[in-house]
Amino acid sequence: MREASDERLLRKVARGNRAAFDELYRRNAGWLAVRLRRRCPDPELAAEVLQDCFLTVWRSAGGFDPEGSAAAWLWTVASSRLIDAFRRQGARVRPAGEPAESALVAASAEDEALRRTMSPELTAALERLPPDLRAVLQSTVLDGRTTRETAALLGIPEGTVKTRARKARLILKEALA
């Protein structure tokens, strides 16, 4: 199982293969937990969401598009479960620029990869964005959420998400011109 891709493991999970599920969990639970903790101030809730995510994966692996990315699909499931949890509890996620105190201090692998692919000018312009604008870009552009999902995640109206995204794009355009 260790040599199989995550995409192949998901196809096996869809057929009820427990060993494939265990391997998929072993490979992906760590990075999913870190990403969830960066967006959720409550460690118990983040752990509950991670469990709910993998329960959903076990039940819904047949919905995975074999042409897609397993990592992207897993993160979509996890972020959807987080949004549902926040709706149930009436909690509010921390914007990406405001990590919980117990979150890891080191930059995530995702952040490091983005830094290596972005120009220094773009990186500097993103870092200068106000946290509320940066959080909207993080959610919509980097995490691929819809306006509605971002609004629920950040606890703001959909119109505010659209306004902040537009403002952030204008600021970035000016900074990079």
UniProtKB/TrEMBL annotation:
A UniProt-annotated Pfam family: Sigma70_r2
Coiled coil: none
Start and end residues of each RNA polymerase sigma-70 region domain: 24-90
Domain RNA polymerase sigma factor 70 region 4 type: 121-170
Protein keywords: Sigma factor, Transcription, Transcription regulation
Similarity remark: Belongs to the sigma-70 factor family. ECF subfamily.
PANTHER family: RNA POLYMERASE ECF-TYPE SIGMA FACTO, RNA POLYMERASE SIGMA-70 FACTOR ECF SUBFAMILY
Protein name: RNA polymerase sigma factor
Organism annotation: Saccharopolyspora taberi
